[in-house]
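Weekly structure sync, notes
Attendees: PL (lead), two postdocs, one rotation student
Agenda item 3: pending single-chain targets
PL asked that the sequence for the first pending target be pasted directly into the notes so everyone works from the same version. It is reproduced below exactly as submitted, 567 residues in total.
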Amino acid sequence: MRGKVGNEKLFVNARIFTSAPDDSVLYDALLIRDGQVVSVGSRDETKAKAGEVDCSLRIDNAHAQNAEVIDLDGKVILPGIIDAHTHLIMLGASYTKIDMIGKTNAQVQDALRQAKKADSEYLLGKAFIFDALGSPPNRSTLDDAVPDIPVYIDSADVHSCWLNTKAIELLGITKDTPNPDGGEFEKDEHGELTGLFKETAVTEFVWPYLSNLLTLDDRLQLLDMAFEGYLATGVTGVVDMAMQEEDLVALEEYHKRRLGGLPISVAAHWITHNTPTAESRIETVRTAARHRDRLAAIDSPLKVVGIKIISDGVVDSCTAYLTKPYANGSQCGPIWPLEQLKPIVALADSLGLQTAVHAIGDAASVAALDAFEYALEQNGEQPLPRFRIEHLEVVSEESIARLTRLGVVASLQPLHADPVYVPNWREQLGQDERCDRAFPWTEYEHSHVAFGSDAPTAPHHPFPNLYTATTRRSGVDPTLPDPVDPRILSLDRFCLKLEAAIRYYTAGSAYSIRAAKERGTLEPGKTADFCVLSIDPFAQGVETMRRAQQGVLETWVNGERVWQRSA
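Predicted structure, written out during the meeting:
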């Protein structure tokens, strides 16, 4: 019995990488029907599938004419990139901020003066790098340039914020304000505020204040910018790693208002702070579960899949939780002590929520693994991916082996190892032996790995990110000369093969959110999410990705072209 042939498109004369395990073939043709992949293979065998119903009955070849044939003239197709760690609203907001990356103190001042208008109520900056400034960030530097309106400048890792005096006053912070747990209002040797806020001093004071300045319409516009940025770079799905009420409201409203709804899939991890009481921490987890259940009943690409815990800080500001001190002799503790971390992880797991733990320092990853093992003891074994560790920048071989044994997803962001960012990272560690195992990506070859950008802490462009993953060279600043230091060159042993890096950014990311059966590879039965490239790193080498911010020609979601580069 013959059924009605659905909406079919046959892509031919292409070079298609499926991201399927152990499959390195670049196929000629791709057939999609009603938003799903039907076949990938040679042109003849794929064309023969056109017209089949449920892939169970061959219709004569004349019915292949029902498929729209698209000749790609030898262009590469990849599965849609899934950014496994990003911050959507913050990414959109980053487009509106003054870029301070690589600037000295004097250049920061010049940028602020140029940006200030007669009607400016405040100024927002992004991506200052500690070692580029020339001297530590201080509010007096900002006051000299802009004394009359508040100024807030994010560090490149977004774990610190540099404020002028006016901004500090508006927040109501004085030199006598106690530091929040897990954070610091930095003071100088005289006990005066420097203007640098770290960790929970940012997340609990600066972020809420700036968030209250945004209207719903503001957030919708920021989402427009974030989605445009992602579609233009071949990204068809993201994992938002700090979802909160106002951002979720904005995403749901976006889906209602915008024609076609959300243009890409969004899997959210609910931000879970270490609040003062166990009751409030428990309620946050239960809130995430309620949103998960509510959204699961709605036909929407927006899902809540888990919780996000920030268990330590970052190396650059000496707030990552390490087993050995920093070069300056300091040694910071965790934001989430283990006795508070374990029950929250176990609760989330018992409710079927995944737990993603930000752990940059080696002691933080040990604590995360301890908490995961505790949850496994409490809740028993289950087959689904349940736990993730985000970043893993300073990590021991023992923790990687343990992570692999437990089935924990290693969620990595290659651009954090970009040579633009790492000089200060290495300096804070004292250039010691920990720097010789920085970002050891190849050691995860037997683990589940997902790639992301952590935008806006690093550029969201997947291809420069892939370039850094495969070379350890800079995709942020392609003009940087290659290293000559033997210690730096020795880190090339951690460079990934191109195919592995692409799989981590597609199939690995899909697995990390329990979506491996639906997306992540171009295999029959999966969602037809993919991108068409203007570059061919397989034939022309990974160097083609270094300047490939415009390396995508088309992005397809659910079998429909949703973005195309204009001529």
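Discussion points:
- The longest strand covers residues 235-243.
- Residues 18 and 340 are 42 Å apart (CA to CA).
Action: rotation student to compare against the earlier draft before next sync.
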